[in-house]
Amino acid sequence: MKKMKKVLSLVLVFSMVLALFTACGKKAPDAQTPAQGGSTGTTDSAGADSMAGKNFAILVKSAGNPYNEKESSGFKEVIEAAGATAILKAPEAATAEAQITMINELIAQKVSAIAIAGNDFDALQPALKKAMDQGIKVLSLDAAVNKDSRMVHINQADSEKIGRTLIQATKEMVKGEGQIAILSATSQAANQNTWIEWMKKELEEGDYKGIELVKIAYGDDEFQKSVDETEALLKNYPDLKAIIAPTTVGIAAASKVVTDKGLIGKVAVTGLGLPSEMAEYIANGSCPWMYLWNPIDVGSLAAYASMALVKGDITGAAGDKFDAGSLGSYEVISAADGGTEVLLGAPFKFDKDNIDEWKTVY
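-> C-alpha cells emitted (362 positions)
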C-alpha cells in the first residue's frame, strides 16, 4: 500500500511539473499594432500562419518621392503584421528600364508577390509576365500597368471623378475665364494620362468656353525639372491663370514657383498633393485647395490584396471579395482598360479649413 501511495505521489508531482513546463513554454499573443492611416495592420491567426516565411515586394516609381515612401510604409506595416517579410524597392530614376531590372531581381529572389506602381503602361509587360509565369502574384497600385501585365490593379480613386473634379475646381478658381496648363509627371504614367484624358473630356463636355488649355508639361516627378517646367509655362504664357498638377511633386514645385515669383492671386495652383508638403502653400493662397487620398492606405490595400492573391482568396477576377482589416471589405471590379481593379475611395479636398488637421498625418 505504501509503495502504491509513493507511486501515485510521484505521478502527481510529475504531472504538476509537466503542466508548469507547458504553461511557461506558451507564448503570449502579440499585441495588435495599429498601422498608419487608420489601418489595424493585423490579420487573423490563420492568415498570419499562412504568410510566415513568405516575401512580398512593393516596387514604387522612384526613390526620394515622399508619396511613394508613404505607400511603401503602409504596405510594410500590413505585411510584417501578418508575419511575412516586406521588400521595399524604388529606382533612382522613374524609368521603365530601372523597374525592369528590379523586377528581374525580385524574380530571382522568388518572392511571393510583386505590387508595382508602373513607370510605363506597356513596357513592363515582358518582365511582369515572366514573374507571373513563375508563379509570382503580380498587381499594380497607384499607376497601372496594362491588363496583361497584372492580375488586378489597386486604384486610389475613380479616375473619371479625379479628372473632372480638378477641372471643375480650376474653373472656380479662375472664375470661368483664362488660360490653364497641366504639369504632369512622366508622359508614360498611366494614372496621369488617364486623369488628363478625363480633364480634356470635362473641358469638351462642360461649360468651359472661357477656359483654354494651352499646354501639358512633364516634370518627370523630379522637383527641379518640375520647377523648370513651371517657370517655362509662366514665361511662355504670361496670361496663364492656373496650373493643374496631378502629381505630388509637381504641385509642390509649381506652388513654390508661384510663391517665389510673387504671383499669388494671379496664378492659382491645384491638383493632387501631400498635406505635409502643401500646408504652407494652402495657407499663403498659392494653392487655394487641392485633393488627394491617403497614400498609406493605398499601400496597405495593396498589401492585403497581395496576401489575398497568394492565399488564393482572390484571383483578380471581377466579383472577387477580400477583407482589408480596418480599411473594410473590398470587391474586385472591371476596369476601363479591360482588366480589373479595386477602388480605395473618393478623393478628399484639402483647404484652409482642414489642412492643419492633416499636415502632421501625411
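The first strand starts at residue 55 and ends at 59.
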